[in-house]
Amino acid sequence: MSSPVLVESLASPVTDRALRAYLGSVPSVDDVMVHQRVAALATRSIKKESKRAALELAVRMTDLTTLEGQDTPGKVRQLASKAVRPDPSDPSIPSVAALCVYPSMVPHAAPVLAGSGVHLAAVATYFPSGQAPGESRVADVRTAVEAGADEIDMVIDRGAFLAGDYVKVFEDIVATKEACGDAHLKVILETGELGTYDNVRKASMLAMAAGGDFIKTSTGKISPAATREVTLVMFEAIRDFHALTGRRIGMKPAGGIRVAKDAIRYLVLLHETLGMDWMTPDLFRFGASSLLNDVLMQIRWLDTGRYQSADYFTKD
Q1: pLDDT score for 303
Q2: Out of 87, 140, 150, 153, which one is annotated catalytic?
Q3: How far is the C-alpha of 231 from the C-alpha of 169, rounded, in Å?
Q4: Chain-centre distance of CA 290, in angstroms?
Q5: What is the structure's pLDDT at 4?
Q6: Which parts of the chain sit beneath pLDDT 50?
Q7: Domain regions of the chain by residue span
Q8: Are 26 and 1 in contact (CB under 8 A)?
Q9: CA 288, 74, 101: angle at the middle one, nearest 5?
Q10: 3-state SS string for 25-83
Q11: In angstroms, rounded to a whole number, what is the distance separating the alpha carbons of residues 142 and 53?
Q12: Using CB atoms within 10 A of its CB, is residue 271 exposed (0-12), middle (13-18) or buried (19+)?
């Protein structure tokens, strides 16, 4: 890996030569070992008591998300209420980590979430394509933060990354981080468009060096979105970056995680790769919409021995 001195020397304006040296030191990914490790960890069994704790942790780690063209203020307010009280009949169920919406919906969610401890995330920088001039991307972020968002999920310009214009990607992230102010920045790589695990690892290392607080797999708008294999590659990049800098960077798989069984598999992968320090909503999130209902159904089954009808929970 690159030396800590090189990581810390990356500053804006960064040079193409410095970035290429930094990314050139990132080791290649062993694709076979990635798939073997994910398959092996998927066979881990969890006892009933541990499963209940894992499901509750999954709730606390969820970024409840709605990113549809048909989103309305009323829908967003209802979802904000659900983020605070996922199961109104059971006050023991914790709130989720955050509600994630379009910037235009932030003013409608903010009053509902005020004082609840639930974060308000906005997808910005012209989600999902990221194809907009830098000034427009930054303005998008500032608008969301001024409206009440305390987390920003930005998208990188995948075209620039694949064309080798690493300086542009780096500077976009730096500018977005500055526009965030005190808001946390999650950097969406859109891994399904990056083509290879090596590209995913390099993009992860680039995003973290540029100042991202989290790295995130996907917008959820293309397939494949999140997979455990690509998540493992990103976990390993986070582990390497922490070894170089001492900084703990968060991770958010998003898109396609719909059932509690899969969520638990992600948590096993997280524990076995990054350890207990990352087993917190401060450093790991699920970007999901339908996942929460399935987790709530599984909790109800563990607590009562009966499945609650899916019709009992609101459709998100």
Answers
A1: 85
A2: 153
A3: 21
A4: 16
A5: 41
A6: 1-5
A7: 4-312
A8: yes
A9: 35
A10: CCCCCCHHHHHHHHHHHCCCCCCHHHHHHHHHHHHHCEEEECCCCCCCHHHHHHHHHHH
A11: 37
A12: middle
Report which residue type is found at 184: H
Please state, in angstroms and rounded to a whole number, the distance separating the CA atoms of residues 69 and 40.
39
Do 137 and 126 touch, CB atoms closer than 8 A? yes
Copy the structure tokens of residue 262. Answer: 């899969």
Question: Residue 168: which of 131, 193, 201 has the closest Cα?
Answer: 131
Q: Which pLDDT does position 308 carry in this prediction?
A: 61
Structure tokens at 240: 């390497």
Give pLDDT, residue 312.
Answer: 53
261 is catalytic: no
Q: Which of 82, 177, 202, 216 is catalytic?
A: 216
Q: What is the DSSP letter of 185?
A: E
Q: Is 252 a catalytic residue?
A: yes
Reported pTM: 0.92
* β pairing state of 184-188 and 62-65: unpaired
Can you name the CATH fold of 4-312?
TIM Barrel (3.20.20)
On whether the CB atoms of residues 100 and 137 are closer than 8 A, the answer is: no
The Cα–Cα gap between 290 and 285 comes to: 15
Give, in degrees to the nearest 5, the angle at Cα 154 between 170 and 293.
Answer: 145
Whole-number Cα distances in Å, 67 to 14, 98, 232: 34, 14, 26
Catalytic residue among 82, 177, 202, 252: 252
Give catalytic status of residue 221 as yes or no: no
ω before 224 within 30° of 0 (cis)? yes
Strand partners, 65: 100
